[in-house]
Each structure stands twice: as C-alpha cells, then as structure tokens.
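Office hours follow-up: a student asked to see two folded examples consecutively, so here they are.
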Amino acid sequence: MPDAGKQAAWLAVFFAVLAWSAWKPHDYPTWWLEVLPALLALVILALTRGFFPLTPLVYWLILGHCVVLMVGGHYTYAEVPLGDWVAEWTGGPRNNYDKLGHFVQGFVPAMIAREILIRNRVVGRRGWLSLIVVSICLAISAFYELVEWWVALLSGEAAESFLGTQGYAWDTQSDMFLALVGALMALLLLSRTHDRQLAVVAS
C-alpha cells in the first residue's frame, strides 16, 4: 500500500477501533488474548512494509480481520451484540459471532498465503496453488485450536470467555470447517482481483 493517504486511513481505522476496544472491555485478560494477534499483525506489517509490501487487497483484508478480533476482544465473542441480534432474528440459541471470526480466519490467511506463495514462486504450477493455500489455512486453524486449548489450561478464569464454546460440543470441529469454507470462498471470489494487483506489484 504505497499511497501515503491509504496508509494513513488504514492506521486511523486500526487505532480508532483499538482505542474503542480497549476502553472498558468485558475483562482485560480476555481482551489481551483476543487482540494480541491484531497487535502482532501490525508489528509484522510495519517490519515488512519496506522490503515486501503487500497488495492493497491483502492489506485491507488484514485490517478487516483485525477489526473482527478487536470487537470480539471488547465484548468477548459470546457476547458481541451483533451475534445476539442475529440469534434473535434467526431464532437460534447461540451467539455465533465467534463463527464469523473463524470464517475470517480462513478467508484472510488464504489471500496472505496465496500472495506469499506466488511472489516467492514457491509453487511452480498453479494447479497446486489452491490446494496448498487451503492446506495452510486448515493448518493455521488447527494450530489456533491447540493454542486456545493451551491458553485455556493456563488462564483459569479467562478460559471460558476465551474459548467461547457456549456449551456447543462440536465447537472445535465447526470452527475448522468454517475456516475451510472461508479459504475456499476467498479463492473463488478474490483470485482474479488478487492476480491483477499482483501484476501491478510485480511490474
């Protein structure tokens, strides 16, 4: 994202949502657990911007993912009002905002992985590209479920808020399935746009 105005807009949105998220959240231990990936993403993007700038599409997708994390951190995933409104509208018993988070966990990393693989010419044949991207997203999702388990074991009182299972027996499996669906949809919907932006970056 070489344009200074777009960089400023990106950072303005990030820090505005971060400040709101940090103001009187549900509880700070859960807030830190949920928002830490967004803060790490900011650091990584700042460190790599000079020698490996990403396409605008990927930068804005990462920002959207960060917003999802920060909203979840403010309320905890089980208590985000949007999830409650959807549950009331559909008549469902569960706040499913966490499922949006896991869908995005596949959707956004799919484009990040695709960009890194293409630009570094890791995959010689495009026929294998989608399979490897989806496999990476599933690996990330599975690893995140392990991290949730480890953090829950260590965090005690914050475990239930962080896990957000809400008593759903198949929570882990559905989380990984939604990450898979997100990765597949990103590839189907965004690959052509991504290729056009990659051509500009490569030129």
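And the second, which I mentioned at the end of office hours:
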Amino acid sequence: MHKPLVIVPCCNKQIGAHPYFAVQTKYAEAVLVGAGCMPLILPSAGGAVDLETVLAAADGVMLTGSPSNVHPSYFGQEVHNPALPLDPRRDATTLPLIRAAIERGVPLLAICRGTQEINVALGGSLYQAVQEVPGMMDHRDDDTDPLDVQYGPAHRVKIESGGVLKDILGGAGEIMVNSLHGQGVDRLAPGLRPEAYADDGLIEAFSVIDAKGFTLALQWHPEWRLVENPDSVKMFGAFGDACRKYQALKGGAHG
C-alpha cells in the first residue's frame, strides 16, 4: 500500500511580476516526516477546484498557517485593518473543502489560519485583533526577531479533559506553545469542542464533536522543528495514523 495522500491547500502569493501557488516547506515536511504521509499540494483556485476529485484521492487534509487572514465578510464583519493581507482565492477553496472533508470523514488537521478557517466554515466568528480585546494577551510575534525566537515557546495552553488532544498527549494537563497570530476564535462554531485554552481564555485548540473521522485544529505551529518537540510528534503521529486508517477503510485506493 502506498503512503496516504494528504491534501495541503496552498496560499496565493505574488513574487515579482508573477502570481504563485505557494506552501511553506515546513508544512510539507511535517506531513512527510511527522505524519509519514505524502503531501499533495492543492492549488487554491476557488471555484475551479473540483472537490469531488480532490477528496476521492485524499486520505487526509492539512490546513496550513499563512500571513493572510480569512476575509471577515464570511463572519459578517468589515475589514478591521486593511494593511493586513487577505487571500480570497484560498478562502473560496478551503471553506467548502473543510465542510466536504468533514462530511466524508476525511482526517483533518489544521494549523493557525487553518484553525480559523474551520471555525468560520462551520459558522463561527473571529477576533480580527485579539490584542485589542479587553483582557486578552497579545498573541502576535515580532517579525523582526530571528525565526527561533518567533517560533519559540510563548505561553502555556491548558488541555481540556476528555478530549482528543488530552488523549494524544497522554493525559498532559498543559503544554507550552509558540504564538504567531493576530486573529483568533471569538464565537466557536456549533458542533465544535474546545480542546485547549490560553490563560486569557482564548480557545487555542478544538475538534469537531460528531465528525466521522479525526479532526484537530491548533492555533499554534506544531510543524516548526517538529522532531525536536515530543508533543508535536504525538500530534502529527496521531494524524498520520488516522490517515492510514482512512486509507485502509477505502481499500487502499492508491495501492
């Protein structure tokens, strides 16, 4: 049997005079090394993407982080800060992909922007500037710092009992995570279960309660230096195991 195929939707990026579909290397490598699966980069081309074709091939879906934000029109708000990047073609690709993947029971792992995409896709809303919400911490990094500092441990998250993440982490009550986001979950979508909170009460992880397959959404970046972080190894390992199980249930369609 071949390795499971994990669909990784890309971002849209302008490099010089040309537009590119782009995925940071660390995400693809995390699927390869951490999950033991084969990443397949999906062009974020909106309505041109045939979701039936994509999901017929998929054994998993991983939603990456990104400098861009989900457009607030999807949760009934105006753009708060026009200086921040948006990626409407990614929104138009990932939001229907999320709903279709969950409906099919395709294993789903989400990171940072991907976490926000799931919440919005299922009817939740976001804080567009967490640091401006009374009582909340500033969860952003300083992009003038070296990457090791930006992705270094920033704060703890408290793991909820009885959930997916608690089980993956072997019962740990809290872990330290990095923090590189300005937006965050405000109103959690119906059917989602909080899996971890920051000390200021911000939801840092959640799962889909009645999903047919594995789902886990993480606001931090476990893909960064994955093999050096035992907690991240466990998360990607659990996702990879779920993808292999899903592939086996499909009858090894790629093998």
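Two things to take away from it. The first strand starts at residue 5 and ends at 9. The helical segments are 25-34, 51-57, 88-104, 113-121, 147-150, 164-168, 230-249.
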